């Protein structure tokens, strides 16, 4: 082998070695983030359960996540909810986000791919953080109205059943299918990306917006069941991951929709019987 060939071979070997190390770091950091967020989510759920729930007219209970505890300001409640929400989203969304990030890394390559991957992730979870703030504002408003208007509180069980029914119906729409297709984007969708910070951030925001739209119905279920209910989180996270990663994701979405429609009808019927 001549000197030029040896130099090219050595450069290629060094580049492959750097890529393998970078990929190993990506997998390791992702696993650590998932483990840490899962532990924090479990701790947050236990803390919320210890606070108890407020009995309401109509035979249901309201989470204390929507109201300040003794000595706590509204700003503190909002900050606590936002932090809890982001940690919860990392736990639920990271398994289905990792393959997308992996394809992004393959598309852009280069020595800055680690930092760019962080920016994509920050843009993605930044969108979810904004969504969480909107959820908090809506939840606080509805909780205040339910506490002030007993007639409205008594109608909540029927409304929750209707929300589940609506969430199931959304799973069958072309709107859902379009956003799910974007979340299941194939390798070719990433080839036009450029390796710069602005493009990485925008790509993360783009992914986050599609994900929020795609998960709108399933997020409703999470809020109906209880924002920090571990069982609800596990079920919703499993449904989201299967939609994104399993072959025939649209069929999975429709199966989930059928289950939700059935559950919604059951909840509505039960509310009339027990009411």
TrEMBL record:
Keywords: Membrane, Transmembrane, Transmembrane helix. It comes from Paraburkholderia panacisoli. This is DUF2182 domain-containing protein. Pfam families: PpoB2. The chain crosses the membrane at residues 25-51, 71-95, 116-145, 151-170, 207-228, 255-273. InterPro entries: PpoB2-like. It comes from the Bacteria.
């Amino acid at each position: 082998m001549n000197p030029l060939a040896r130099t090219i071979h050595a450069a290629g070997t060094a580049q492959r070695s750097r890529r393998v190390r970078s990929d190993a770091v990506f997998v390791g950091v992702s696993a650590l983030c998932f483990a840490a967020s899962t532990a924090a989510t479990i701790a947050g759920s236990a803390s919320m359960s210890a606070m108890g729930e407020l009995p309401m007219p109509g035979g249901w209970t309201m989470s204390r996540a929507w109201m300040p505890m003794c000595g706590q300001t509204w700003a503190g409640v909002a900050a606590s909810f936002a932090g809890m929400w982001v940690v919860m989203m990392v736990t639920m969304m990271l398994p289905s986000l990792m393959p997308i990030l992996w394809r992004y890394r393959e598309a852009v390559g280069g020595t800055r791919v680690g930092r760019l991957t962080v920016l994509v992730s920050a843009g993605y979870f930044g969108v979810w953080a904004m969504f969480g703030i909107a959820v908090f504002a809506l939840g606080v408003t509805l909780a205040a109205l339910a506490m002030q208007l007993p007639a409205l509180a008594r109608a909540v069980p029927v409304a929750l059943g209707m929300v589940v029914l609506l969430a199931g119906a959304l799973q069958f729409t072309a709107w859902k299918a379009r956003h799910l297709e974007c979340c299941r984007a194939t390798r070719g969708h990433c080839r036009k990306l450029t390796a710069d910070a602005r493009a990485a951030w925008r790509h993360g925001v783009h992914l986050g917006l599609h994900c929020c739209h795609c998960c709108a119905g399933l997020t409703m279920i999470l809020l109906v069941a209880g924002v920090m209910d571990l069982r609800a989180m596990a079920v919703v996270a499993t449904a989201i991951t299967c939609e994104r990663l399993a072959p025939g994701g649209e069929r999975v979405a429709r199966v989930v929709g059928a289950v939700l429609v059935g559950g919604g009808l059951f909840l509505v019927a039960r509310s009339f019987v027990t009411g």
